[in-house]
Design a protein that fits this description.
Blueprint lengths: L1 E4 L2 H19 L1 H7 L1 H24 L11 H21 L4 H25 L5 H5 L1 H6 L6 E4 H19 L7 H24 L2 H5 L8 H8 L1 H9 L12 H17 L1 H4 L11 E7 L9 H4 L6 H4 L5 E6 L7 H10 L12 H4 L8 H7 L3 E5 L9 H8 L3 E3 L9 E2 L2 E2 L1 H14 L4 E6 L28 H25 L5 E7 L6 H9 L4 H4 L13 H6 L3 E8 L2 H6 L8 E2 H11 L6 H12 L2 E2 L3 E3 L5 E3 L8 H15 L3
Parallel strand pairs: 1-2, 3-9, 3-10, 4-12, 5-6, 5-9
Antiparallel strand pairs: 4-11, 7-8, 10-11, 13-14, 14-15
Length: 644
């Protein structure tokens, strides 16, 4: 749904610009004849104007600091914009269509940043471009509010488009075509060589914060920041990396873990009596009562907290407001996005065949492996990635034709029914990975029944998106408890790991309301002062990157033998190994290594890592890095990119 949220002046200006564009297109032949001499000399001027106009069209829609960007970054941004325009202009034979296409692309980029920033609190990153199909398939539940900045950019586009429409058409000859193609190709080659030779961050000082990319985009310009992030997509081996050393580290740390009493005495079950392993990654499941302004009227995930779990706690993730696939990646592979960086989606970029992961390992010890996600199978390339990871089968939206729907999406309970069906088909050991979707944003559908709806006013004001989200979480808890009740009656041992993939995007706003702005400069306050005892720096950032998790079983022997403390915070890359140990299954070398590293680095995610004393550090804090950090970097790189 599209809404116009702008004042009458902005709307009138946009309509006037559209009328001018329409008039120029309809009367272009008449205007060309009447102002032939003037327009014939105006083409170079209009073409030159496309460069600053393109820059503004990329910035104005989303960036309130457009006219406060550092002049050095403005100059560099104009240079890059000019090079891209020249490529399009000359390859397009200096045509009006080439100019118009370039400006439309700039406007589309700026507007896309506006909407993505509105929904996720972050701008478009390079890997987002590769995920357009996924984004399109889940975009129906959002309201697209068009603000004054978008209308202002549209007015600029329409006015300049009107002048372009009035220009005389270019007269192409064989010679001019050859010259234009040669010029465009030469500029393209030169631009590619420049992009490959420079380090935008080091050479130009354009740094993009991994946890506050939007601020960087607004301060430095979106195009420059986008290119800087693009340079970091390709995997880089750790300093002094060698596959031989990585293999030696992995074997040595694994041996230590195997010798450790807590691992050695894990309740391994007989090969023919192994529990079914069910992992549920629940869409946007989180407990917003961790924010003090919400906790005043919201009691939190009460039903979830009452579950008699083997172990539960906070799980630090690397996604917020979106990026579900990265949470899947961390859980399944035991890898951390903290060593890959922001803007990277491994599902979209990397070949994961051969990489150690839960599905491949459990398959190797006799488990049937199934993945469930009630959406299009192509989303995040899951149809390919699940095969690469070794899943035997994948149940997508086509498997839920008669499923119960909630807010236009398949309910959690429907996916749990499929899990029960799979568990009842035979007695073979099974690993089932269920990625739910029912609580997906946006939260303005009005589709939550009153029996689940939660009303949690903030400072006396109710927000529809907050209430609907909390209603989704309430229903998720009810359906989870009912599912566990059915598993209790099942005549086979089952162990369940349940966790949320990320918090909703609006927690950016919730956090600022709760604590004030105290995040700039990696912990240096900028803006309102937070309340006393409020988290600051990286601790404040991590508040938005944590979700609840729990591991539960219906088997008394596993419950009695479990040596995990009942409350244990961790990060998502360790959770798979913790699940294997709680299930009483033997650990292979890779997952034993993972648990060994956890002793020195209890948690790690996109933002930073925790040391053995429980203190958080930014990844850029090289002075605080331990030998375990280097070892984890080595082994992760080898597992993902040196599989052969």
């Amino acid at each position: 749904m599209i809404e116009i949220q702008a004042g009458p002046i902005a709307v009138v200006c946009a309509i006037a610009a559209l009328c001018f564009l329409s008039y120029a297109i309809i009367r272009r032949k008449h205007l060309a004849r009447r102002f032939d001499r003037v327009l014939s000399h105006a083409k170079p001027i209009v073409a030159a104007a496309c460069i600053p106009a393109g820059f503004l069209l990329m910035e104005i829609p989303y960036n309130p600091l457009t006219f406060s960007i550092d002049p050095a970054f403005v100059a560099l941004g104009l240079g890059v914009t000019g090079a891209l325009f020249a490529i399009v202009f000359f390859l397009g034979q200096r045509s009006k269509a080439a100019m118009a296409a370039f400006l439309c692309a700039c406007f589309a980029e700026g507007t896309a940043n506006y909407f993505v920033a509105s929904f996720k609190g972050q701008p478009i990153l390079p890997s987002d471009v590769m995920a357009l199909q996924t984004a399109a398939s889940v975009s129906g539940g959002y309201t697209y509010a068009v603000g004054e900045s978008v209308l202002a950019a549209f007015a600029l586009l329409a006015v300049l488009g009107g002048f372009i429409a009035m220009l005389p058409a270019a007269k192409a000859t064989k010679r001019s075509v050859a010259i234009d193609l040669s010029a465009g190709a030469a500029i393209l080659v030169a631009f590619s060589m420049w992009f490959g030779a420079v380090d935008i961050e080091k050479d130009y000082g354009c740094r993009v914060d991994v946890w506050s990319s939007l601020d960087s985009y607004q301060q430095n310009g979106s195009l420059l920041c986008f290119l800087q992030r693009s340079q970091l997509i390709a995997p880089h081996a750790p300093e002094d990396y060698s596959p031989q050393e990585a293999a030696a580290i992995r074997a040595e740390k694994a041996a230590i873990a195997m010798a450790d009493q807590a691992v050695e005495d894990s309740p391994a079950t007989a090969p023919d009596v192994r529990p079914a392993v069910v992992a549920i990654m629940n869409e946007t499941f989180s407990d917003l009562s961790r924010y003090p302004n919400v906790a005043q009227t919201y009691a939190g995930t009460v039903a979830f907290d009452r579950i008699d779990a083997l172990v539960k706690g906070d799980c630090y993730v690397s996604a917020m407001g979106g990026g579900t696939c990265n949470s899947e990646f961390e859980f399944l592979t035991g890898s951390t996005m903290g060593l890959l960086g922001a803007g990277v989606y491994p599902y979209m970029l990397y070949d994961l065949r051969g990489a150690d992961n839960l599905a491949r390992y459990l398959s190797s010890i006799g488990y049937k492996t199934s993945a469930i996600h009630p959406a299009q199978k192509e989303n995040w390339r899951r149809d390919r990635v699940y095969r690469q990871l070794g899943f035997d089968e994948f149940y997508d939206i086509d498997s839920f034709e008669d499923a119960e729907m909630f807010r236009g999406m398949v309910s959690d309970a429907s996916t749990y029914d499929l899990i029960l069906d799979l568990l009842n088909r035979d007695d073979d050991p099974r690993f089932i990975f269920d990625v739910t979707i029912a609580s997906h944003g946006g939260y303005d559908t009005g589709g939550v029944d009153e029996q689940y709806m939660v009303h949690a006013p903030l400072d006396g004001i109710e927000y529809d998106d907050v209430n609907e989200y909390l209603g989704c979480i309430e229903r998720s808890q009810v359906e989870l408890v009912e599912f566990l009740g059915k598993l209790r009656e099942l005549d086979r041992p089952v162990i369940v790991c349940f966790f949320g993939d990320h918090q909703p995007g609006f927690v950016e706003w919730l956090s600022n309301e709760a604590y004030g702005a105290n995040e700039a400069g990696e912990g240096e306050a900028d803006g309102a002062q937070p309340a006393a005892e409020a988290p600051t720096g990286i601790d404040l950032v991590q508040e938005r990157y944590v979700t609840p998790y729990m591991i539960w079983t219906n088997n008394p022997e596993l419950r009695q033998a479990s040596d995990e403390p009942r409350v244990a915070d961790t990060s998502l890359n360790y959770l798979g190994a913790i699940l294997l140990r709680a299930a009483g299954l033997p650990l292979d070398e890779y997952f034993a290594f993972t648990l060994a590293v956890r002793d020195d680095i209890p948690a790690i995610n996109l933002n930073g890592y925790q040391d053995a004393q429980g203190e958080w550090h930014w990844h850029g804090d090289t002075a605080a890095r331990s030998e375990a950090y280097r070892q984890l970097s080595m082994v992760e790189h080898a597992n993902l990119f040196e599989k052969d």
